[in-house]
Specification:
The protein is of the alpha+beta class and 416 residues long. It is built from twelve helices and 13 strands. It is 25% helix and 17% strand.
Length: 416
């Protein structure tokens, strides 16, 4: 292949596009993108996308209302499909998974792939939270099994890996599930080897993100997604892990012909780790509002500290609340913790970052630092009408572009 035509779904501010452009912008050509945030009057993400990639570069309509015939034929479909219903930000028992409002958007991907028929893309490259492998709580792994079976039905070999960006020398501890599907009769699909070899040595993830290899490779967990020849999706929906006793999918795996192979792998990286210090701006670039007022420090310490204290529920029931302590301030000589969408708030909060900068004062992270922690270009989200809180929210929803770049580089070697 001389070039790969890419469409980007649930594009956000263009994390997949940034990552693939870094891999090779002459090879990966993003020809169409879609971004729509429901129940939001101002579409900040789409505004930022268009600012960076040009007028008309993104379709700002609900993907459920976009006809497949209006989406150009393409070689690769990419997307971080919305993950709120699987997110670690909510308890697993409250997660509605594929049945949830956001989770149903998986079916938009499936619909496009199915309706493209013989013109469906050579490669599908997706990102979601690691909780996806356990969703829903009442039937662990069912949602992921449905996704795998959908891709199996459409003729794809699929591999997945749960990757923590910081374990591969990137500046943020962000753990996400990455999924890549290859047409069985396509350029990469035809090179498929044995499952053990692919997962540990020769696969795309194995090359892009090496893992520890023992003298004798461990046995893979093998799991049939469904025992039925017909109505497999319905069977998985009702029967998969019905007694909820299995932990069906490990952090690395592969699906071929409706059989899933998985194993726990250990990351290996010899590169020098990136840290918060590496992405910090100079003090003169920090607005005064980001420094923590002296009178708030005690409150920040309380939220970050260990607790064991009696509390009362709304119904009057008393209980003992306990949680462990967190580092305060955050070390600038380590990768950051995971950025969340509320990172931009000013008030004391357990999850927001506070660092001590070159002045010796405590402060929150500024938007350009959040961008750099996700490996976006500096000021990628800077735009009139998009305030600092909006910019932090957009980064809390984004992926680490460096992951996409490494996968893109490996795909290019094989596709060329």
């Amino acid at each position: 292949m001389k070039e790969v035509r890419v469409i980007e779904l649930f594009a956000g501010v263009g994390g997949f596009r940034v990552g693939l452009d870094r891999a090779d912008s002459d090879f990966f050509k993003t020809i169409w993108a879609n971004q729509w945030e429901p129940a939001t009057k101002v579409q900040h993400a789409a505004m930022v996308y268009e600012k960076n990639f040009g007028a008309g570069s993104v379709v700002n309509n609900d993907i459920n209302q976009v006809k497949t015939e209006d989406i150009p034929d393409h070689d690769m479909l990419v997307g971080g499909f919305p993950c709120q219903d699987y997110s670690v930000a909510t308890t697993l028992s409250n997660s509605k998974g594929i049945e949830g409002k956001k989770g149903v958007l998986w079916w938009s991907i499936y619909r496009i792939l199915k309706e493209k028929g013989d013109n469906r893309p050579e490669i599908v490259f997706l990102e979601n939270v690691d909780r996806l492998l356990l969703s829903p709580a009442s039937q662990r792994g069912r949602d992921f099994a449905i996704i795998l079976e959908c891709l199996n039905e459409l003729g794809y070999i699929v591999e997945w890996r749960v990757i923590n960006a910081a374990e591969y020398a990137m500046p943020q501890k962000r753990r996400r599930t990455y999924i890549v599907g290859y047409k069985k009769d396509g350029i990469i699909g035809k090179t498929f080897t044995k499952p053990e070899d692919w997962l540990f040595r020769s696969g795309v993830f194995a090359k892009a993100f090496p893992v520890f290899i023992e003298e004798k490779l461990p046995a893979l967990r093998t799991l049939k997604l469904s025992e039925k020849k017909k109505d497999r999706l319905l069977d998985i929906t009702s029967e998969f892990n019905g007694n909820n006793k299995l932990h069906p999918f490990e952090n690395s795996g592969l699906m071929v012909d409706g059989i899933a192979y998985s194993v726990t792998t250990i990351p290996v990286c010899k590169d020098k780790p990136m840290t918060i210090r590496d992405i910090m701006v100079n003090p003169e670039e920090v607005p005064a509002e980001f420094y923590v007022p002296e009178e708030q420090i005690a409150r920040w310490q309380y939220y970050k500290g260990a607790k064991r204290e009696p509390r009362t529920k709304k119904n009057g029931v008393q209980y003992m609340y306990a949680e462990g302590g967190m580092e305060f301030p955050d070390s600038i000589d380590k990768p950051s913790r995971t950025i969340i969408t509320s990172e931009g708030g000013k008030s004391p909060d357990r999850c927001r970052h506070v660092i001590q900068d070159q002045t010796g004062r405590l402060r929150r992270l500024v938007p350009v630092e959040l961008e750099r922690l996700n490996m976006f270009p500096s000021d990628h989200t800077k735009l009139e009408g998009v305030d600092n809180g909006n910019r932090a929210f957009l980064m809390g929803n984004a992926l680490v572009c460096g992951i996409v770049t490494k996968v893109g580089e490996e795909l290019e070697k094989r596709l060329k």
